[in-house]
Records
---
Amino acid sequence: MPIPSLSHRCARPSHANYRPKKEKKKLTEAPLDDRVDALETRRGQLLTQRAQLERKLAELRRKMADEPEGRDAGAGSGDGGK
């Protein structure tokens, strides 16, 4: 299967962390205190996101542990239950 070219992608990604090049350049040219503040703000956002993901992961692991081991046994085996 051929690898799709990157030309089909949108010029602006839809993910939440997207920053236009001008905004990035402005931040890198900002005074050191402003850069530190921006990085601390981003760190807080990432820590919040991490906590949310860890809660979801713990919940999923709990659900998986509660499921019976053989719940899917025989499913899709192709023998038609014979």
---
Amino acid sequence: MNKKLPMLSLVKPRSADVEPLPEIEKDRLIRILRGFGIFTESTAKPYLVRFTEGSAAYAAGQATIEVATHGGGSTFSPFVIEQIIVKFKLDRTHFLEAYAGSHNT
């Protein structure tokens, strides 16, 4: 009785006309999100990053998400970036514009 379970996704599938998200370096994503008022907190594990909305210190009622890096802790996958965008209700177009503008910084 080896039934295959359907995959569940936290993120809605994107339509073909939506620009795909890139893999982004950890420091660069932190800089981009800081521009949206989203800050990081330390975690017990070096490959995990906690993003918190509003201030550097967590307060009750703030949106927060803890996500894993990959590539030895140096990058975030497009799937993880999509989760962050959804969690903090960021406008995808504004996020991609901030990403494009962060190339030279």
